[in-house]
Amino acid sequence: MHSITTALENLTRQLSQEIPATPGLCVFDAPFPLNDAFDALSWLASQSSFPQFYWQQRNGDEEAAVLGAITVFSSLDLAQRFLRQHAQPDLRIWGLNAFEPKEGYLLLPRLEWRRSGGTATLRLHLHSDVSLRDDARQAKAFLASLVGIKPVPALRLSLTSEQHWPDKDGWVKLIQQATHTIAQEAFDKVVLARATDLQFSRPVNAAAMMASSRRLNLNCYHFFMAFSADTAFLGSSPERLWRRRETALRTEALAGTVANHPDNHKAWQLGEWLMKDDKNQRENMLVVEDICQRLQNCTHSLDVLPPQVLRLRKVQHLRRCIWTALNQADDTLCLHQLQPTAAVAGIPREPARCFIEQHEPFEREWYAGSARLSLHAAK
Predict the structure, then answer these.
(1) Does position 79 have pLDDT exceeding 50, yes or no?
(2) 19, 47, 89, 333: which sits with the fewest CB atoms below 10 Å from its CB?
(3) In terms of Cα–Cα distance, which of 362, 346, 367, 363 is closest to 181?
């Protein structure tokens, strides 16, 4: 019998116990032996319930798949308030923050599969402002609706058209506006983006796209949020915005770029050039200085580690890790201090962000935001 089947049966049995008809929050865990070829993304994509969220750490040691939402929060502030009200150990909220960090889509899931190293757990949440017993009935129906794993189909797409915002002329104009504004000393740096609308001959399977990206893009965080059967946001990013364990905080400056090469020796030579290139080192240090400045009033001493080269599929980046300790364990503080970083917005942040808002012909929404936000309730 597959591990997922055994774990779901375990949770169903736990729901058969006497559950009070009172408000509250309740958590049920089932062990999940990793003794079969279980793929969390395939299992998630096989279900008809939404939302669906998948996340994998860049070294592959941690992975999560969550299904359904008991409660959805439109901001990190609201999610943190919920966690403070329900001091359940190891309670986690998952989801996305938009480029504008006051906006988010964060959720307490109905079902949460989580793996750390060689250990995995399947968790079910109950929550109600009226009756946990009533929510348990809904949870039983939810579990009964789940289906077996179907393989994620291969990604076979035929592109029929593409459109860019801005187009080439608009992009040149935008660059000219940015350089003119920099010359006027309104800001030192701005990071511009453009949107591309791709049309295909058939509907795009978002999970298949995520699976393909996960296979090809190594050393990346992989994230996938399916809001419905027709709407999803996904990506593979090498950058960690922050990681907090109690008050211990780790963040990083990922800026400065050179091409990668399939030949290891040539890739090493390119990486050595990147380490010695003044322009790329200065670009990376601008991000380091911006992060340190933002954190200096809410942390102890900041340790900036020596630069490293992070090798990806197509490019290589300069990375400097920054370690510190927060004066207070607070993810909302981390979010508002660190997002958006100088690597995706500019320096100083506010005038660069205002320029982006005024001149880019689209809203960034989830692009250049942050994903996972696996928040821990206070102990």
Answers:
(1) yes
(2) 89
(3) 346
Please choose, from the candidates 317, 318, 289, 314, the residue with its C-alpha nearest in 3D space to the C-alpha of residue 302.
289
How high is the pLDDT of residue 376?
Answer: 59
| Half-sphere exposure (Cβ direction) of 128: Cα atoms closer than 13 Å | 16
Among 189, 272, 283, 360, the one annotated catalytic:
189
133 contact partners, CB below 8 Å, separation of at least 6: 19, 20, 21
The CA–CA distances, whole Å, from 146 to 5, 9, 32, 62 equal 10, 12, 17, 24
Q: What is the DSSP string of 319-337?
A: EEEEEEEBSS--HHHHHHH
Active site residue 9: no
**Closest Cα partner for 121 from 173, 190, 65, 169?**
65
| Active-site annotation holder among 9, 62, 173, 239 | 239
Token pair recorded at residue 306: 């020596």
Q: Are 307 and 320 in contact, with CB atoms under 8 Å apart?
A: yes
Average pLDDT, the chain: 95
Is 189 catalytic? The answer is yes
